[in-house]
Amino acid sequence: MSLNISSIVEQYLKMPTNYALFLNGKRGAGKTYCVKSQISDLIKNTDTSHDASEKYKFLYISLFGIDSLDEIYTMMVMELYPILKNKSAKIGLGLTKIVARGLLGTMKLGSINDFLGDFGSISKDAIDTKNFVFIFDDIDRKSSKLDIGNLIGFINSLVEHENNKVILIAESELINDKDYSQVREKTIGTHIEYAPDLTESYDALASAFIKNGSQHYEKFLQRFKSEIISCFIARGSTNLRILSYLFQHLYIVFGEIYDQVGLDKQQTEESENMQKVRSVVKFAAGVCLEFRVGKISFSERGKLDDKESLQEFFNRINMEEMFRSNGEKTKIESTKSFLEEFLGYYFPKNDYIYYESLYGFLTGGSPFDMTMLTREWKKHFDDRRRTELPQFVLYQNLHITRCLDLSNSELKKKSKELISYALKGAFPLDHYLSVFYYIDRFNDILGYNMQHLAKRIILALEKHKKSFAMVHSLSRQFGIEKERKYYNEYLMIFKKALKINEAIDEKQKSADQGELFAAFSRNPQEFYETAYKQYGTPIFPSWSGVKAFAQIKKMTPTQILGLANFLGHISAQLTTMEIKFLKELMTLLITIKSRLNLKGYVLDILRVNIDQAIEKHPVSN
Asked: Would strands 165-170 and 57-62 be described as parallel, antiparallel, or unpaired?
């Protein structure tokens, strides 16, 4: 808590007043946390303004969803119950009024007659409302049924007639009631703007884990403090609820990864283990920030997991930078997507890794899967190590920003090495246009016959086609101007790479389909789990209706019902080829006579769901 807020509250408590204090701030900024963890201690240690021998007491009421004054009185009685339950306690006139009205709203505090009997025993030692600081939180989240004018009138009666201390908490911009602006000046004297220092709040939340015996986790949070805070700053957020949500989820991850990455050992910040953990922390921070403000959900992922969109984005950025650095134009254009905004906020250095093991856990759809995280780390960091191979180091060193100070002889030597690697098939398919461009630039000062070089590259692509891997979105990476001198050569190289890429894609799809059908034949539940993970991509395009029918006849009623439900879930996204498969399957299913048993019952459900799926795609009929 800032010294300024502390001083204002302390001054308010010590002097006679007839107005309320208003603590204003954004939702999630930590106003309630500040009051309960810090201002409450200040209140309880401050002498009352009317009697230095008495200390203030603290009464907190949340108005979230409250729709009547009677409900407020009832909640106040509930908070006062520990005091009222003490039969030796004597209550003053102010409390008598509150208790009397509150008891009308609740019959759950024991004998009302016992309490009413105490109303007559008012003495100089009686507990009075002037000894309390009433804090009313969430005014901006009260029910619309509770009239703001009546609420402010009630508060005014406390501060003006009973000389009580009252602190109100809300985000004032969200109080839209017209009456509020007309009556607030009469009741509210001082407005405090709560704009917490994110670093200070971070430390306070992290230190709470020390109290819970989690010193190692607190050290972990401090170690990655700059990464987390930079994500919040980039997003323009100081929301402590989101920060707390992130801390709670990272705590589970921390417990799983602590030994595996050696967090108990001294490691440099650039070590691979620290890079792994840093990528997890940044991904978790970004997902929590977007999830908690409703931008993404477990099912609506904003293409954060779309490999094709990711690769297209990074390739476009690289191509644009390459042309821009050389003072040339490019036609590569696109509108800014959510994915692009996400990467801009949290991964401006293009070091993004999507973690399926974390996404479902952070968005409430699945438990954290350490085995999956280990596999993801292996894949992504094996790929990163690949960029340290000599051909990729050479490729990077020939970027326009690094090669301008080379002599002609050095440039020719390195360019010759680059071509040699390319002709050996040592680069991914999406690098070959860039390799050709590296030789073409600088007005042919390297002296190569570019038409001949293009033919050699195309032959090399054909020769090594079995060694290449699929490159997502390659079809959208051609951004060469038609006016460019060797445009036709660029186009021929691109078409060859694209043809190879499409063949790899078809082969992979066929293999995936084979694996899916094998899983379906082996264990239908395993098939459903695998298929749901690739939601959004075709499941049945090359399946045989005959083989599927044979397998269905062997399935139990439970398994058949699972297939029927699965088809119901994905029916809207089926492709033409999948509808063709379902029609073939349906012609076979209708040959099975309906029987009055459980298997006949679930087969009827399956047939109905297939019919409905086919009807959703009339073009395919």
From this structure: unpaired
Taking a C-beta distance cutoff of 8 angstroms, is the pair 44, 213 a contact? no
Highest mean pLDDT among 75-79, 148-152, 493-497 belongs to 493-497
Rounded to 10 deg, the angle between the 225-235 and 215-223 helix axes is 60
What letter does residue 38 receive in the DSSP assignment?
Answer: I
Strands 57-62 and 20-24: unpaired
Angstrom distance (rounded) from CA 621 to CA 619 = 6
How far is residue 168 CA from its own chain's centroid? 32
Residue found under tokens 């440039």: 411
In Å, how far from its chain's centre is CA 285?
Answer: 7
- Look up residue 373 and give its amino acid: L
Has residue 308 got a pLDDT over 60?
no
Written as one string, the DSSP assignment of 173-238 is GG---HHHHHHHHHHEEEEEE----HHHHHHHHHHHHHHTT-HHHHHHHHHTHHHHHHHHHHHT--
Instruction: Tell how far CA 518 is from the center of its chain.
Output: 35
Q: Once rounded to an integer, what is the mean pLDDT over residues 277-306?
A: 86
Q: Which burial class, exposed, middle or buried, applies to 272 when counting CB atoms under 10 A from its CB (0-12, 13-18, 19+)?
A: middle
Q: What b/e string do you get for 58-92 counting C-beta neighbours within 10 Å, with b at 16 or more? A: bbbbbbeebeebebbbbbbbbbbbeebeeeebbbb
Please give the angle made by the CA atoms of 237, 242 and 244, to the nearest 5 degrees. 125
Stretch 461-490: mean pLDDT: 84
pLDDT digits (tens, 9 = 90+) for 348-406: 877 788 898 899 889 888 888 888 888 888 878 776 666 678 888 898 888 887 888 88
β-strand partners of 133: 58, 165
If you search the block for the tokens 């029609």, which residue do you land on? Answer: 583
Distance CA 353, CA 16 (A): 59
Report CA dihedral (99, 103, 106, 110) to the nearest 10 degrees.
Answer: 90
CA distance 463 to 312: 26
Kind of pairing between the strands at 20-24 and 165-170? parallel
Mean pLDDT value of segment 503-513: 69
Instruction: Compute the distance between CA of residue 538 and CA of residue 549 in angstroms, rounded to an integer.
Output: 19
Residues present in the chain in total: 621
Consecutive H or E run containing 100: helix 93-105
Two structure tokens written together for 410: 């050095």
User: What are the φ and ψ backbone dihedral angles of 103, each rounded to 5 degrees?
Assistant: -70, -20
What's the CA gap between 542 and 578, in Å, rounded? Answer: 8
Instruction: Provide the total of helices (H) and of strands (E) in the chain, helices listed first.
Output: 28, 5
Residue 143 backbone dihedrals phi, psi, to 5 degrees: -70, 150
CA 420 to chain centre: 44
For helices 198-211 and 240-257, angle between their N-to-C axes, nearest 10 degrees: 50
Check residue 438 and give left, alpha or beta (phi > 0: left; psi -120 to 50: alpha). Answer: alpha
Q: Is the pTM of this model over 0.85?
A: no
